[in-house]
Design brief:
Blueprint: E1 6-8, H1 13-19, H2 23-31, E2 39-40, H3 49-61, H4 71-84, H5 91-103, E3 110-111, E4 114-115, H6 128-138, H7 155-166, E5 169-175, E6 182-187, E7 195-198, E8 214-220, E9 223-228, E10 239-241, H8 243-247, H9 255-303, H10 306-340, H11 347-369
Parallel strand pairs: 5-8
Antiparallel strand pairs: 1-10, 2-9, 3-4, 5-6, 6-7, 8-9
Length: 370
Amino acid sequence: MEDSNYVRKPIALFRQIKENEKSSNLLHSLKSAYPEKLKIGAAIMTGDCFFDSVAQGLNELNIKPGYRFTAKSLREDCADYAEQHGEQDSWTYKAVIKDAAIGSYFAALEGPYGPIQNPETKTNMIDEENTFHEYLKDIKNMATGDSSALIWGRPGIEGRMICNKYKVELCVYSIEEDSQKVTVTKITAHNDDPEVFIQDLNLDQLKIDNSKKTVGVVNYMRHFVPLLSKISSDITESQPVSSEEILGTGEEVPTSDQQEKAVQQERIQKKLMSNYRKEAIYGTIAVIAAIVFTTSAITAVFTQPIPLAFLAGVALVVACVCVYQLTQSRKNINELKSELGKDQENSSHTFLEEMGLKMHSLINKATLKI
């Protein structure tokens, strides 16, 4: 194989079976937990195995036709997801900070004389904002990169991000080293609580919905490998793999992404057009109401008829409501324009915007006359 810079390795269980036949019982227990059509694959080592395993599973499911997931692309997906959903009260932010504290790879809160320590525990306090910012950079790092900061893939954090982003289920089949029992963790898109199934307890209750797209991975001795249906047998030996398979080319924007972006832009354009129309309508009504108010008020001063005074009051209320609606429409327009981008605005938008600005000018002039 050309450009074989990476090696995908199987789980150590296959080697252990050769050395000790008793380990075959573990393999039997593992195989009985997932559908028979699935076979155990292999993945690269040293921190990237989780992403490589999930990427292989997503590719087999053809989640994005014409596009191949890689360990690198999934790391970047997680960084993007975390950045988009990184509010301080979000599960993403809380999970990243909590795990950083447990793993002691957080950024310490700095004072004028160095890191600030908790007076009770005598440990450095966490700078949450800086820790999350560092995560957004470090999660992109591959194990083979030059950077020493490497974050291993975690089913409950990055796995959950991937499930939410691509609307898939993730089933992690683990063999606990202490109990030697199989545990299955099922993570579902947009579900806060993963389901856990344990051998000899409730594993028989595990149900895989064939109507849903499910990615399966095996975790044994902290090495993740994929469960695949399109390989003929379990992979028990190391396999060389190209750099492109792990890193991708990263030069093309997936067709599905382009289509999704086009749909989103079209939706924003429709909202923008609607707000421009509202602005024009409310502006016209506001100008008319202002003129009616001015005329009625002046006439009422000299003639003092009650109907004209009442009409002036109604016109004033209508004008105030329209001015408020105009303000809201302008706010919506500015927000939508920032989402759409200047290069996406066409001539019809510009024309309507100019009309809206003229309406604002007319309203201001009418207001000065009141």
